[in-house]
Design goal:
The structure holds 2 protein chains of 2 kinds. By secondary structure, chain A is an all-alpha fold. Chain A is built from 20 helices and 2 strands. Chain B is mainly α. In chain B, helix 2 packs antiparallel against helix 5, helix 3 packs antiparallel against helix 4 and helix 4 runs antiparallel to helix 5. The chains are: A mainly alpha, B mainly alpha. Chains A and B meet through helix 1, helix 7, helix 8, helix 9 and helix 20 of A and helix 1, helix 2, helix 5 and helix 6 of B.
């Protein structure tokens, strides 16, 4: 695989538009391409969630582009499936890792580019192809699939007979996920190699910024888990198209028709899927943790509290993430003894998570805090991570999960901790690195307005979902008015939908700020945040090979702020001791 | 070094956070550009190791599905391996030996020997793939198809997935052969031959693993 890449770590700057901006091998351009793909995807995913919220709050209404009359439950399920799939894969996996990781990782470790630039380009184009395939599912006969982002068989395995969307739509879904898995595997291989082999002199492992640590560990998770998802996708596709029976049980009757398969097990899919699916949660959130650590330290003008503990916590979260997949299957007939083991390991993850939270608060404690927008989003991340994470120990116990599993409590939990917390990490990363990427600053006022409406908005959306979940409201239901005890919860749905509409509308502030600042923002200096890591030692935006032909040397750790005796309150990683002493 | 920074001179440094290396070649794209000598070689070896790790996970997933499915219901009927499988295995094992001889000949600068072993490796690899095609034809001739029973499904899945990966290795070999024909295969291409050899040996080992799985977990 690697030898086919035929590339070197450094290549000449391309001249033509196509090679420079479209089929570029420059990690910075590829990072921005990933970022824009995620931006496009998040708007598609958000539009789908808007339709779902409209349906839930006003069940009898008819909405633009959704046909005449009330939306059918099948349409609702297809919106749910596509929302989950697009958000998890093309937003939460794409922007934090492919976007920021690609742009920043090589510069932060002092490399001129990724180890395999051609492979890097192929990763992006493979991912983009996956995006086109999933979008195509909207436009085939039968429409988009209804099997959820987890694609559970037998619904996903038996084809058209299972309902609209389960024909070609579901096939495209599987193909898209398989393509995405291949793209992610190529990308992760590149990230790991780059981090292992291309660090500048002096950039020892314990001098790497925590962002680099999180991208590194995330890449390992991707390499090990996406290969399993790919295998599962191949088996599912074979069940659908080639008549095998891996996941389809014998004697299955659908629409009064006996399905001609025998002996397979839907549980087998769940095991394979969640072996990928749980690490995927950390793939989404770990880079956000890295960005948050970076920003909290920079804007509190203090070294990160407990750097080594943070590194070990990142590695522990990544490693434990491979042994908890069963907690997604407590209600699937899993042996109670297995459930107990999965439950114990799940609760153990609370330890490194608590260490991280404690250290973030320790970093803020007594700091000279600068409340610029990156800092607000980073604090928002911590808040959402704690609020969403605290419901984890409830769901991690099988006895409680039996009741809560198929309710809105789970929807609230994963949206807060994995969805919007990770999205706040992306906002933070965007505002923080925007000056480096585009050479201009984003607008602080627009940023603060966007932050506050979104921050309050997401709490208004997801907090009430905990309550309706505890009240026994099942998830995935399109219509709640037909059942008495659910009808009583209808006003809560209306409140959530109104909060969602306001929050979605507020995203315009971010988009306007982004594009306005791209052309009209004040010019950024080399190091506008007075940060210490290597990306702030090069011009904004950096030259093609990042360091203008030189190779940096690293003399110290990444978070040396407010060092006693130093002439300024931050010391760059490239500043040698002699210069610090000389500056006294 | 510190003086150089103070005077604003280029800083040079060295790869994977450690070590020193001579100034020559640094920052010069034509000589390896901005990275210490040996880095490209190291990245290719690391990258190949990681690629093999990813491929291993694919087959680990297939294996766990195989073991779980084999114990699920009574429709599992073991596939009798046709004798041709053993001939194919022999060809693949031999190709690993010739691949190793290719690598050694290249390192020793023995061009003619290198080309001979290289051609032998590619031919043996091709023979294996053709042989596998023959195995599938034989099985289907006996009415054992992909969807006949779960055991046959896994037989086709595992052997075809392996064949597809080996085909990738064969394409890399053919590229090396074409380079050799054009007298471009010198010690500078050592890395290319080395990582291909690693991949090839891995595919060999993977085949033995699949064979053992199919044989012992019937």
């Amino acid at each position: 695989m690697a030898h086919a890449a035929g590339a070197h770590a450094v290549h000449h700057a391309p001249q033509g538009f196509i090679r420079k901006y479209i089929f570029s091998m420059d990690h910075k351009v590829i990072g921005i391409q990933y970022w824009f793909l995620a931006l496009l995807s998040v708007f598609v995913g958000m539009a789908l969630s808007l339709y779902m919220r409209l349906r839930l709050a006003w069940p009898s209404g008819s909405f633009p582009f959704m046909g005449e009359g009330p939306m059918t439950p099948e349409t609702y399920l297809s919106l749910l499936t596509m929302h989950g799939t697009i958000m998890v894969f093309f937003v939460l996996t794409t922007a934090p890792q492919g976007g920021f990781g690609n742009y920043v990782l090589p510069i932060q470790i002092g490399a001129a580019d990724m180890a395999f630039p051609f492979l890097n380009m192929m990763s992006f184009w493979t991912t983009l192809l996956g995006f086109f395939v999933i979008i195509a599912a909207f436009f085939v006969s039968g429409g988009a699939p209804t099997g959820g982002w987890t694609g559970y068989p037998p619904l996903s395995a038996v084809g058209e007979i299972a309902g609209p969307g389960q024909g070609l739509g579901q096939t495209l879904w599987i193909v898209s996920i398989a393509i995405f898995a291949v793209g992610s595997l190529l990308g992760s291989l590149n990230f790991i190699t780059t981090t292992i082999d291309l660090r500048a002199k002096g950039m020892s492992l314990m001098r790497m910024p925590l962002t680099v640590w999180t991208w590194f560990v995330t890449s390992i998770l991707m390499l090990l888990s996406f290969a399993v998802l790919l295998a599962a996708g191949i088996l599912l596709l074979m069940d659908r198209e080639l008549g095998t029976s891996f996941f389809i049980p014998a004697g299955l009757v659908i629409s009064e028709q006996v399905i001609n398969h025998k002996g397979g097990s839907p549980l087998l899919w769940q095991h394979l899927f969640w072996f990928f699916g749980h690490p995927e949660v950390y793939i989404a959130i770990l880079p956000g943790m890295g960005v948050t650590s970076q920003i909290l330290s920079t804007f509190a003008r203090k070294p990160i509290f407990g750097y080594r503990a943070m590194v070990y916590a990142i590695v522990a979260i990544g490693a434990l993430g491979f042994f908890v997949w069963g907690h997604h299957m407590f209600i699937s007939g899993l042996s109670p003894y297995s459930g107990l083991i999965f439950s114990m390991v799940t609760l153990t993850i609370g330890v490194p998570s608590a260490i991280k939270t404690f250290n973030w608060l320790g970093t803020l404690w007594g700091g000279q805090i600068r409340f610029a927008t990156p800092m607000l989003y980073a604090i928002g991340f911590v808040s959402l991570f704690v609020s969403g994470g605290l419901s984890g120990p409830f769901l991690g116990q099988s006895s409680l999960d039996l009741y809560l599993h198929d309710t809105y409590f789970v929807v609230a939990h994963f949206h807060l901790v994995m969805g919007v917390a990770a999205i706040f990490g992306m906002f933070a990363g965007t505002v923080y690195w925007f000056p480096k990427m585009f050479g201009r600053m984003m607008n602080e006022t627009l940023g603060k307005i966007h932050f506050w409406i979104t921050f309050v908005g997401v709490y208004a959306i997801f907090m009430p979902m905990h309550y309706i979940g505890i009240a026994g409201h099942p998830r995935r239901y399109a219509d709640t008015t037909a059942v008495d005890y659910l009808a009583a919860l209808q006003p809560v749905h209306e409140f959530i939908s109104i909060a969602a509409i306001i929050t979605i509308a507020a995203q315009l502030f971010f988009v306007i700020n982004f594009f306005w600042s791209l052309y009209r923002g004040p010019k950024a200096s080399e190091n506008p945040w007075e940060a210490t890591t290597l990306e702030w030692t090069v011009p904004s935006p950096p030259p093609h090979d990042n360091f203008g032909g030189r190779t940096p040397v690293v003399y110290r750790g990444p978070y040396e702020y407010s060092v006693p005796g130093a002439s300024q309150d931050y010391i760059m990683q490239t500043t040698p001791d002699t210069m610090v002493r000389g500056a006294k | 070094m510190a003086e150089a920074i103070i005077r604003g001179q280029p800083q040079v440094g060295g790869g994977a956070g450690r070590g020193d290396f001579p100034d020559g070649g640094l920052g010069d794209p034509d000589r390896g550009g901005g990275v210490p000598p040996g880095t490209v070689r190291r990245t290719y070896r690391t990258g190949m190791g990681l690629a093999l790790l990813g491929i291993s996970m694919l087959f680990v997933a297939f294996t766990s599905a195989y073991i779980v499915r084999s114990g699920l219901s009574n429709d599992w009927q073991p596939v009798e391996l046709p004798p041709l499988v053993w001939w194919n295995t022999g060809a693949l094992l031999a190709s690993s030996i010739t691949m190793e001889l290719t690598r050694r000949a290249l390192n020793s600068g023995l061009r003619a020997q290198c080309n001979r072993w290289l051609a032998a490796t590619a031919a043996l690899g091709l023979a294996f793939l053709v042989g596998q095609w023959g195995v599938w034809r034989q099985l289907s001739g006996h009415g054992i198809f992909l969807d006949t029973n779960p055991s046959s499904s896994f037989f086709y899945l595992l052997t075809a997935s392996h064949a597809l990966h080996l085909l990738g290795g064969l394409l890399a070999l053919l590229y090396i052969v074409s380079e050799a024909w054009r007298y471009r295969l010198g010690p500078a291409k050592r890395t290319l031959v080395e990582v291909t050899a690693i991949y090839w040996h891995f595919m060999d080992g993977l085949w033995v693993y699949i064979l053992l799985l199919l044989w012992f977990w019937r």
